[in-house]
Amino acid sequence: IHSFCKKDDHNKENLFNSINYDVAAKKRKKDLLNNKAKTQYFHQEKWIYVHKGSTKERHGYCTLGEAFNRLDFSSAILDSRRFNYVVRLLELIAKSQLTSLSGIAQKNYMNILEKVVQKVLEDQQNIRLIRELLQTLYTSLCTLVQRVGKSVLVGNINMWVHRMESILHWQQQLNNIQITRPAFKGTTLTDLPLCLQLNIMQRLSDGRDLVSLGQAAPDLQVLSEDRLLWKKLCQYHFTDRQIRKRLILSDKGQLDWKKMYFKLIRCYPRKEQYGDTLQLCRHCHILSWKGTDHPCTANNPETCSTSLSPQEFINLFRF
Question: Which UniProt keywords are given for this protein, alphabetically ordered (predicted)?
């Protein structure tokens, strides 16, 4: 000690520099995982084992937040087949599961949401879908922030207020978006034969998209009011029993399928359809995106996978 304090000033300075270097290195490593990180944190393996059974003891680290960290949703939103699936999952989490996420999972949630908004601003697609997601999240946060002091949110309240301000900014950006018309002046939808136009309209699964399409041109307005079109839309989303309970007659004494559709969606959930979903292996209980390799011991792993809806995914982690 005497030698260190009195003689080896040079060594003393080197020791302090070494200590400061170690502290700085640890701080940089910590910053990769704290709230300043702008990338999603996930493990190298992009799958997660889900314990069979719904008890708190058996779940262990197999939580919704852990799954959200490891399943690489940042890359999934870039895939058009998975985009709507991820958005629906974000909406369900915003409604009821936000407080069940860990701090890093909540940060990942906000980072992914920011990437979703930026993608929509660039592509000018799915604007209404993201508006509804942001409004749902903002409403939930308003309720949770009012309960500050009851351990319902992870982190400082000022951080959540800042996030709410970001949501308001994103909403303003979406409201100010201007749809640019394509420079291509070739064949348009209205140039196609009526049977093809009607066939394309039948591919739309959301009645609001059908109404918006009818407002684009007078010719499309006539087709968008087709009774058979709205009838098929009702039969696609709802059962015969649900339809019989919500019958509406028009002035001509016929079933008004358009009004029935909008009444039905207020009473019953619509059928969800996605191009690609998360899958659960029934043999080894591993959850992953389709096409992701996982250590399955089954002879034919492809036959063991079952698709999960966003709600079924969340239900896996309830106990």
Answer: Cytoplasm, Nucleus, Ubl conjugation pathway
